[in-house]
Amino acid sequence: MTREFENIIVQTVCRILTPFLQVYALYVIAHGHYSPGGGFQGGCILGASYILMVIAYDINAVKLRMSEKINTLYCSVGVFIYAGIGLLCLILGANYLDYGILHKILPVDAVKARAMGTFAIEIGVGITVMAVMVSIFLNLATDGTHDEGVV
Amino acid sequence: MEFVIGKYNYWIYIVLMMIGFYAMIAKRNLVKKLVGMNIFQTAIILYFISIASKKGNATIPIIQKTQGAINPADYMNPLPHVLMLTAIVVMVSTFGVALALILMIYRKYKTLEEDEILEILRSQK
Amino acid sequence: MKFFALVAVILTGVALIYTTIDMPDWGDPNSPANSHVSPRYIEKSLEETATPNVVTAVLADYRGYDTLGETTVIFTAGIVCILLLRRKKDDKGI
Are the CB atoms for A82 and C68 separated by under 8 Å? Predict the structure, then answer.
């Protein structure tokens, strides 16, 4: 009876806390320009919000929210965004990853375009770090089969 | 005496590094060796961060005032912080891959002590 | 076995402490780490990149290519864990 009671408290608190964790992670990614933060830190917090749900609940209940195929796709989407921005700068005429040339397609001046380019690659880094954290955790904790409950 | 006061930060991190190094080579369990590797890498990261500080009233490398000339003696050195972000990511990656290899060893040999694994390998030859 | 490990660790520690004689003092503003390219990053970062956080400006703008390599490193670690460990439930054990 004691075990059932503490499960209810843990599950309810984790379920209420997860949206605030995700909003805080997006805040850390977006404010990397003005305070300590950035892509890697925000991506870790996003991954931690998913891992908290897996620890509190069973893994089959959480796999309905984000399946394994979408998660593995997110791993590559982040690197693709990063390399794609560099390739876009190359197509527009400047060197690879030279964000100053992006003022031709964005309605800002050349100095602000560098800040915009930095922000875009931080988004890509955040997505990749989140997906890799979740993927490593699931593969290690369930010994390869994404099926049993987490002990 | 001022030799000790000037450089004692390096000595503290060397002691931490040697604790991790001892755990890597002297323990018999594979997971304990891995924990020693993690301590070693953390000591290296802290050692580089301690190089970045400056005496006087130097603050964190986020530019406070936006008008006029910026004096580099007011802000800490940002370059070791940047390099250590990369080092932390490499630390996490090697830890994940090493744990995956330990799981594969456990699946095959059903034990994690290194002398028992060597016994099984010698008797299988 | 553990005695030899202890001797090796103590010898390495003494050798490392001996090399700190030549290193700069803690907090020296004129040390070689604080003198060559780092003052330029601090002075020119706000007017060239419009980013007050110098660490993010150096990581994502001045040294953006290294951050691309690092993202590839963590991507490779995720792929390696999937390749080594993932199996279906009805496989016979190894």
Answer: yes
pTM of the model: 0.90
Residue of C nearest to A129 (CA): C74
Neighbour subunits, A (≥3 Cβ pairs < 8 A)? B, C
pLDDT at position A94, please?
A: 86
pLDDT band, residue A109 (cuts 50/70/90):
confident
DSSP 3-state of C53: strand
Chain A contact set for B100 (CB, 8 A)? 139-140
Number of H helices, E strands in chain C: 4, 0
Nearest one of C30, A138, A86, C48 to B73, comparing CA atoms? C30
> What's the pLDDT score for residue C92?
58
Cβ of B62 and A34 within 8 Å? Answer: yes
Q: What pLDDT, on a 0 to 100 scale, did the predictor assign at position C73?
A: 95
Q: Which among C43, A49, C63, C78 is positioned nearest to B84, based on CA atoms?
A: C63
